[in-house]
Amino acid sequence: MTWLALCDHDDRRFSLRGLGSDKKADPVLQDDPRVMLTRGTVMFETRLSADGRPQVLFGYKTTHPWLRSLTFQAIPGGGVAMVQVQDKDITHAAIHHKDAGRTDVVRITYSWDSTAKWGRMTLEQPEDTHVVSVAVDNPRPLSLDDIRDLMLGRNDQTFAPDMIFAALSDQIEPIGPTPTLLPSTPLATPWGYKPAAQLQRGDTVMTKSTGVVPVLHRVSRMVPARGSFRPIRLRAPYFGLQDDIIVSPDQRLVIDGPEVEYLFNQEAVLVPARHLVNGFAALQEPCGPTIQYSQLLLPGHDTMLAAGTALESLYIGRIRRNTTHLQSSILHGFDRGGLPEHGRPGHHVLRWYDAIHLARQRAA
Length: 364
Hints:
Layout: E1 3-7, E2 12-14, E3 36-37, E4 39-48, E5 55-62, E6 68-74, E7 79-86, E8 89-96, E9 104-113, E10 118-124, E11 131-135, E12 142-143, H1 144-152, E13 156-159, E14 163-169, E15 186-189, E16 192-195, E17 204-207, E18 211-214, E19 217-224, E20 232-234, E21 245-247, E22 252-256, H2 258-264, E23 268-272, E24 282-284, E25 290-297, E26 303-306, E27 309-312, H3 323-327, E28 348-349, H4 352-363
Parallel strand pairs: 23-28
Antiparallel strand pairs: 1-2, 1-14, 3-12, 4-9, 4-14, 5-6, 5-13, 6-7, 7-8, 9-10, 10-11, 15-16, 17-18, 19-25, 20-21, 20-24, 22-23, 26-27
Protein backbone atom coordinates (compact mmCIF):
# COMPACT_ATOMS: atom_id res chain seq x y z
CA MET A 1 0.00 0.00 0.00
CA THR A 2 1.50 3.32 -1.08
CA TRP A 3 0.21 6.88 -1.00
CA LEU A 4 1.28 8.33 -4.35
CA ALA A 5 -0.25 11.82 -4.29
CA LEU A 6 -1.52 14.44 -1.85
CA CYS A 7 -2.97 17.88 -2.42
CA ASP A 8 -4.52 20.68 -0.39
CA HIS A 9 -4.82 24.45 -0.81
CA ASP A 10 -1.14 25.00 0.05
CA ASP A 11 0.68 22.10 -1.57
CA ARG A 12 0.49 19.42 -4.26
CA ARG A 13 2.72 16.35 -4.23
CA PHE A 14 3.05 13.33 -6.49
CA SER A 15 5.72 10.62 -6.59
CA LEU A 16 5.81 7.30 -8.42
CA ARG A 17 7.72 5.87 -5.43
CA GLY A 18 5.29 7.10 -2.78
CA LEU A 19 5.26 10.01 -0.36
CA GLY A 20 7.12 10.74 2.86
CA SER A 21 7.65 7.75 5.15
CA ASP A 22 5.61 5.69 2.64
CA LYS A 23 8.30 6.06 -0.05
CA LYS A 24 9.45 2.80 -1.71
CA ALA A 25 12.83 1.91 -3.17
CA ASP A 26 11.38 1.36 -6.66
CA PRO A 27 8.58 3.12 -8.58
CA VAL A 28 5.10 1.72 -8.04
CA LEU A 29 4.06 2.71 -11.58
CA GLN A 30 6.03 2.92 -14.81
CA ASP A 31 6.69 6.52 -15.84
CA ASP A 32 4.52 6.32 -18.95
CA PRO A 33 1.49 8.65 -19.39
CA ARG A 34 -0.51 5.72 -20.79
CA VAL A 35 0.14 3.26 -17.95
CA MET A 36 -3.07 2.39 -16.08
CA LEU A 37 -3.76 2.31 -12.34
CA THR A 38 -6.30 -0.52 -12.37
CA ARG A 39 -6.62 -0.68 -8.59
CA GLY A 40 -6.51 2.21 -6.14
CA THR A 41 -8.23 4.71 -3.87
CA VAL A 42 -9.03 8.40 -4.03
CA MET A 43 -9.69 9.77 -0.55
CA PHE A 44 -10.67 13.34 0.28
CA GLU A 45 -12.18 15.39 3.08
CA THR A 46 -14.48 18.32 2.49
CA ARG A 47 -17.06 20.47 4.20
CA LEU A 48 -20.66 19.98 3.17
CA SER A 49 -22.70 23.13 3.49
CA ALA A 50 -25.88 22.88 5.57
CA ASP A 51 -27.92 24.37 2.71
CA GLY A 52 -26.89 21.45 0.47
CA ARG A 53 -26.07 23.68 -2.49
CA PRO A 54 -24.78 21.75 -5.53
CA GLN A 55 -21.16 22.30 -6.54
CA VAL A 56 -18.23 20.45 -8.02
CA LEU A 57 -15.86 19.68 -5.14
CA PHE A 58 -13.00 17.85 -6.79
CA GLY A 59 -12.19 16.45 -10.19
CA TYR A 60 -10.60 16.83 -13.60
CA LYS A 61 -11.62 16.86 -17.26
CA THR A 62 -9.60 16.38 -20.42
CA THR A 63 -10.61 16.02 -24.08
CA HIS A 64 -7.32 14.77 -25.58
CA PRO A 65 -7.15 12.29 -27.23
CA TRP A 66 -10.71 11.53 -26.06
CA LEU A 67 -13.07 12.75 -23.36
CA ARG A 68 -12.06 11.63 -19.85
CA SER A 69 -13.19 13.02 -16.51
CA LEU A 70 -13.68 12.13 -12.86
CA THR A 71 -15.68 14.53 -10.69
CA PHE A 72 -17.08 14.50 -7.17
CA GLN A 73 -20.01 16.84 -6.59
CA ALA A 74 -21.97 18.03 -3.56
CA ILE A 75 -25.62 17.29 -4.30
CA PRO A 76 -28.82 19.05 -3.14
CA GLY A 77 -30.14 17.83 0.20
CA GLY A 78 -26.67 16.81 1.38
CA GLY A 79 -24.36 14.14 0.02
CA VAL A 80 -21.79 13.51 -2.67
CA ALA A 81 -22.06 12.11 -6.20
CA MET A 82 -19.25 10.68 -8.32
CA VAL A 83 -19.29 10.72 -12.13
CA GLN A 84 -16.56 9.13 -14.25
CA VAL A 85 -16.57 9.52 -18.03
CA GLN A 86 -14.26 7.77 -20.47
CA ASP A 87 -15.30 8.40 -24.04
CA LYS A 88 -18.84 6.98 -24.23
CA ASP A 89 -18.65 5.02 -20.94
CA ILE A 90 -20.16 6.65 -17.85
CA THR A 91 -19.86 5.40 -14.24
CA HIS A 92 -21.99 7.03 -11.54
CA ALA A 93 -22.61 6.67 -7.80
CA ALA A 94 -24.15 8.86 -5.07
CA ILE A 95 -24.28 8.89 -1.27
CA HIS A 96 -26.88 10.95 0.54
CA HIS A 97 -25.98 12.63 3.83
CA LYS A 98 -29.26 13.33 5.59
CA ASP A 99 -27.88 14.66 8.88
CA ALA A 100 -26.07 17.74 7.56
CA GLY A 101 -27.46 20.18 10.12
CA ARG A 102 -24.41 22.43 10.00
CA THR A 103 -21.28 22.67 7.87
CA ASP A 104 -20.13 19.09 8.39
CA VAL A 105 -16.73 17.64 7.50
CA VAL A 106 -17.01 14.32 5.68
CA ARG A 107 -14.45 11.87 4.35
CA ILE A 108 -15.14 10.31 0.97
CA THR A 109 -13.22 7.16 0.03
CA TYR A 110 -13.59 5.95 -3.55
CA SER A 111 -11.86 2.62 -4.21
CA TRP A 112 -11.84 0.59 -7.40
CA ASP A 113 -10.52 -2.58 -8.99
CA SER A 114 -11.32 -2.24 -12.67
CA THR A 115 -10.03 -5.73 -13.49
CA ALA A 116 -12.59 -7.22 -11.11
CA LYS A 117 -15.22 -4.67 -12.23
CA TRP A 118 -15.63 -3.69 -8.57
CA GLY A 119 -15.88 -0.28 -6.95
CA ARG A 120 -17.04 1.28 -3.67
CA MET A 121 -17.67 4.82 -2.47
CA THR A 122 -17.91 5.47 1.26
CA LEU A 123 -18.90 8.46 3.39
CA GLU A 124 -17.58 8.79 6.93
CA GLN A 125 -17.56 11.61 9.47
CA PRO A 126 -14.88 12.35 12.06
CA GLU A 127 -16.16 11.51 15.59
CA ASP A 128 -18.85 9.23 14.15
CA THR A 129 -18.55 5.45 13.80
CA HIS A 130 -21.36 5.27 11.23
CA VAL A 131 -20.22 4.24 7.74
CA VAL A 132 -22.30 4.58 4.56
CA SER A 133 -21.12 2.77 1.42
CA VAL A 134 -22.51 2.31 -2.07
CA ALA A 135 -21.36 0.01 -4.86
CA VAL A 136 -19.82 1.47 -8.00
CA ASP A 137 -20.54 -0.63 -11.07
CA ASN A 138 -17.79 -1.23 -13.61
CA PRO A 139 -15.33 1.53 -12.58
CA ARG A 140 -12.65 2.56 -15.07
CA PRO A 141 -8.89 2.64 -14.44
CA LEU A 142 -7.00 5.93 -14.27
CA SER A 143 -4.02 6.54 -16.52
CA LEU A 144 -0.89 8.19 -15.18
CA ASP A 145 -1.85 11.26 -17.23
CA ASP A 146 -5.29 11.28 -15.55
CA ILE A 147 -3.70 11.03 -12.10
CA ARG A 148 -1.43 13.99 -12.75
CA ASP A 149 -4.35 16.05 -14.05
CA LEU A 150 -6.44 15.17 -10.98
CA MET A 151 -3.83 15.53 -8.24
CA LEU A 152 -1.47 18.19 -9.63
CA GLY A 153 -4.13 20.60 -10.89
CA ARG A 154 -3.24 20.39 -14.56
CA ASN A 155 -5.62 21.40 -17.34
CA ASP A 156 -9.32 21.58 -16.34
CA GLN A 157 -9.12 20.60 -12.66
CA THR A 158 -11.36 21.64 -9.74
CA PHE A 159 -10.40 21.85 -6.06
CA ALA A 160 -13.21 23.76 -4.36
CA PRO A 161 -12.70 26.11 -1.37
CA ASP A 162 -14.67 23.65 0.79
CA MET A 163 -12.11 20.91 0.12
CA ILE A 164 -9.61 20.14 2.92
CA PHE A 165 -7.31 17.62 1.25
CA ALA A 166 -7.27 14.82 -1.32
CA ALA A 167 -4.94 11.82 -1.58
CA LEU A 168 -4.41 8.88 -3.91
CA SER A 169 -3.25 5.35 -3.02
CA ASP A 170 -2.39 2.42 -5.28
CA GLN A 171 -4.39 0.00 -3.09
CA ILE A 172 -7.90 -0.50 -1.70
CA GLU A 173 -7.83 1.54 1.51
CA PRO A 174 -9.73 0.30 4.61
CA ILE A 175 -12.74 2.11 6.03
CA GLY A 176 -14.15 2.15 9.53
CA PRO A 177 -12.11 1.97 12.78
CA THR A 178 -8.73 3.67 12.46
CA PRO A 179 -5.69 3.68 14.80
CA THR A 180 -4.90 7.00 16.46
CA LEU A 181 -1.58 6.75 18.38
CA LEU A 182 2.01 7.08 17.25
CA PRO A 183 3.81 3.70 17.46
CA SER A 184 6.19 5.29 19.99
CA THR A 185 3.40 6.21 22.45
CA PRO A 186 4.31 4.85 25.92
CA LEU A 187 1.49 2.66 27.30
CA ALA A 188 1.34 1.39 30.88
CA THR A 189 1.88 -2.33 31.41
CA PRO A 190 2.40 -4.33 34.62
CA TRP A 191 6.15 -4.02 33.88
CA GLY A 192 6.23 -0.29 33.25
CA TYR A 193 5.65 1.82 30.17
CA LYS A 194 6.31 0.29 26.76
CA PRO A 195 5.92 1.79 23.23
CA ALA A 196 2.69 0.78 21.53
CA ALA A 197 4.71 -0.72 18.66
CA GLN A 198 6.28 -3.28 21.02
CA LEU A 199 2.98 -4.65 22.33
CA GLN A 200 1.56 -7.75 20.66
CA ARG A 201 -1.35 -10.12 21.02
CA GLY A 202 -1.12 -11.82 24.43
CA ASP A 203 0.71 -8.96 26.14
CA THR A 204 -1.11 -7.08 28.91
CA VAL A 205 -1.71 -3.40 29.60
CA MET A 206 -2.98 -1.36 32.53
CA THR A 207 -6.40 0.28 32.16
CA LYS A 208 -8.03 3.05 34.17
CA SER A 209 -11.00 1.10 35.53
CA THR A 210 -10.54 -2.61 34.74
CA GLY A 211 -6.92 -3.10 35.82
CA VAL A 212 -4.73 -5.47 33.83
CA VAL A 213 -6.25 -6.70 30.53
CA PRO A 214 -4.82 -8.69 27.59
CA VAL A 215 -4.06 -7.21 24.19
CA LEU A 216 -6.14 -8.92 21.50
CA HIS A 217 -4.50 -7.21 18.53
CA ARG A 218 -2.36 -4.26 17.56
CA VAL A 219 -3.32 -2.49 14.32
CA SER A 220 -1.33 0.03 12.30
CA ARG A 221 -2.04 2.16 9.28
CA MET A 222 -0.24 4.74 7.14
CA VAL A 223 -2.48 7.71 6.28
CA PRO A 224 -2.16 11.19 4.73
CA ALA A 225 -1.16 13.61 7.50
CA ARG A 226 -3.87 16.11 6.66
CA GLY A 227 -7.42 16.92 7.74
CA SER A 228 -8.75 14.55 10.40
CA PHE A 229 -5.42 12.66 10.27
CA ARG A 230 -3.18 15.69 10.97
CA PRO A 231 -1.34 14.91 14.22
CA ILE A 232 -1.83 16.80 17.47
CA ARG A 233 0.77 17.18 20.22
CA LEU A 234 -0.63 16.90 23.75
CA ARG A 235 1.80 18.63 26.08
CA ALA A 236 2.90 17.69 29.57
CA PRO A 237 1.99 18.46 32.33
CA TYR A 238 -1.51 19.19 30.96
CA PHE A 239 -4.08 16.35 31.08
CA GLY A 240 -1.90 14.61 33.70
CA LEU A 241 0.80 13.81 31.14
CA GLN A 242 4.33 12.99 32.25
CA ASP A 243 5.67 13.51 28.71
CA ASP A 244 4.33 14.94 25.46
CA ILE A 245 2.49 12.51 23.20
CA ILE A 246 1.34 12.85 19.59
CA VAL A 247 -2.10 11.55 18.60
CA SER A 248 -4.65 11.69 15.81
CA PRO A 249 -7.42 14.32 16.11
CA ASP A 250 -9.90 11.44 16.60
CA GLN A 251 -8.08 10.07 19.67
CA ARG A 252 -10.36 10.56 22.68
CA LEU A 253 -9.08 11.43 26.14
CA VAL A 254 -10.79 10.81 29.47
CA ILE A 255 -11.32 14.18 31.16
CA ASP A 256 -12.60 14.42 34.74
CA GLY A 257 -12.76 17.02 37.51
CA PRO A 258 -15.27 19.35 39.17
CA GLU A 259 -16.04 21.21 35.93
CA VAL A 260 -17.07 17.95 34.27
CA GLU A 261 -19.40 17.00 37.14
CA TYR A 262 -20.92 20.50 37.22
CA LEU A 263 -21.44 20.88 33.47
CA PHE A 264 -22.40 17.35 32.44
CA ASN A 265 -23.37 15.53 35.65
CA GLN A 266 -20.72 12.89 34.83
CA GLU A 267 -17.63 11.80 36.75
CA ALA A 268 -15.66 11.74 33.47
CA VAL A 269 -16.20 12.34 29.75
CA LEU A 270 -14.42 11.43 26.51
CA VAL A 271 -13.12 14.37 24.47
CA PRO A 272 -11.60 14.07 20.95
CA ALA A 273 -8.13 15.59 20.81
CA ARG A 274 -9.16 17.98 18.00
CA HIS A 275 -11.33 19.91 20.48
CA LEU A 276 -8.47 20.38 22.93
CA VAL A 277 -6.23 22.34 20.56
CA ASN A 278 -5.69 25.75 22.16
CA GLY A 279 -2.14 26.74 21.26
CA PHE A 280 -0.46 25.67 24.52
CA ALA A 281 -1.87 22.45 26.07
CA ALA A 282 -2.59 20.89 22.67
CA LEU A 283 -1.38 22.11 19.30
CA GLN A 284 -1.00 21.01 15.70
CA GLU A 285 2.20 19.03 15.16
CA PRO A 286 4.32 19.83 12.07
CA CYS A 287 4.71 16.74 9.92
CA GLY A 288 5.40 15.40 6.45
CA PRO A 289 2.83 14.20 3.90
CA THR A 290 2.10 10.86 5.60
CA ILE A 291 2.03 9.48 9.14
CA GLN A 292 1.69 6.03 10.69
CA TYR A 293 -0.70 5.42 13.58
CA SER A 294 -1.09 2.35 15.78
CA GLN A 295 -3.71 1.29 18.34
CA LEU A 296 -4.54 -1.64 20.61
CA LEU A 297 -7.71 -3.68 20.51
CA LEU A 298 -8.78 -4.82 24.00
CA PRO A 299 -11.59 -7.21 25.07
CA GLY A 300 -13.67 -4.33 26.42
CA HIS A 301 -13.75 -0.72 25.37
CA ASP A 302 -11.25 0.22 28.09
CA THR A 303 -9.18 3.34 28.56
CA MET A 304 -5.41 2.80 28.55
CA LEU A 305 -2.82 4.83 30.43
CA ALA A 306 -0.49 6.67 28.05
CA ALA A 307 2.35 8.69 29.61
CA GLY A 308 0.12 9.30 32.63
CA THR A 309 -3.18 10.18 30.99
CA ALA A 310 -6.18 7.98 30.15
CA LEU A 311 -6.80 7.39 26.44
CA GLU A 312 -9.47 5.39 24.64
CA SER A 313 -8.42 2.06 23.11
CA LEU A 314 -9.64 1.04 19.64
CA TYR A 315 -13.45 1.12 19.53
CA ILE A 316 -14.96 -1.33 17.02
CA GLY A 317 -18.58 -1.49 18.19
CA ARG A 318 -20.32 -4.57 16.80
CA ILE A 319 -18.53 -4.62 13.46
CA ARG A 320 -18.11 -8.41 13.67
CA ARG A 321 -21.86 -8.74 12.98
CA ASN A 322 -21.55 -6.91 9.64
CA THR A 323 -19.49 -9.08 7.29
CA THR A 324 -19.28 -6.42 4.58
CA HIS A 325 -17.98 -3.70 6.88
CA LEU A 326 -15.63 -6.11 8.63
CA GLN A 327 -14.05 -7.22 5.34
CA SER A 328 -13.66 -3.57 4.31
CA SER A 329 -11.95 -2.56 7.56
CA ILE A 330 -8.46 -2.72 8.99
CA LEU A 331 -9.63 -5.83 10.90
CA HIS A 332 -10.30 -7.88 7.76
CA GLY A 333 -7.42 -10.29 8.34
CA PHE A 334 -8.45 -11.26 11.87
CA ASP A 335 -10.60 -14.21 12.92
CA ARG A 336 -14.15 -12.93 13.17
CA GLY A 337 -14.92 -15.25 16.07
CA GLY A 338 -12.03 -13.82 18.08
CA LEU A 339 -13.13 -10.20 17.80
CA PRO A 340 -14.92 -8.61 20.77
CA GLU A 341 -18.15 -6.64 20.71
CA HIS A 342 -17.99 -3.18 22.19
CA GLY A 343 -21.18 -1.61 23.49
CA ARG A 344 -21.51 2.11 23.96
CA PRO A 345 -18.35 3.94 25.08
CA GLY A 346 -17.74 3.68 28.82
CA HIS A 347 -18.00 7.46 29.19
CA HIS A 348 -20.18 10.13 27.60
CA VAL A 349 -18.53 11.47 24.42
CA LEU A 350 -18.66 15.27 24.16
CA ARG A 351 -19.73 16.84 20.92
CA TRP A 352 -17.71 19.73 19.55
CA TYR A 353 -19.75 22.50 21.17
CA ASP A 354 -19.68 20.87 24.64
CA ALA A 355 -15.95 20.18 24.35
CA ILE A 356 -15.23 23.81 23.45
CA HIS A 357 -17.38 24.98 26.37
CA LEU A 358 -15.49 22.69 28.77
CA ALA A 359 -12.14 23.93 27.48
CA ARG A 360 -13.19 27.55 28.05
CA GLN A 361 -14.35 26.76 31.59
CA ARG A 362 -11.01 25.16 32.40
CA ALA A 363 -9.08 28.09 30.95
CA ALA A 364 -11.12 30.67 32.88
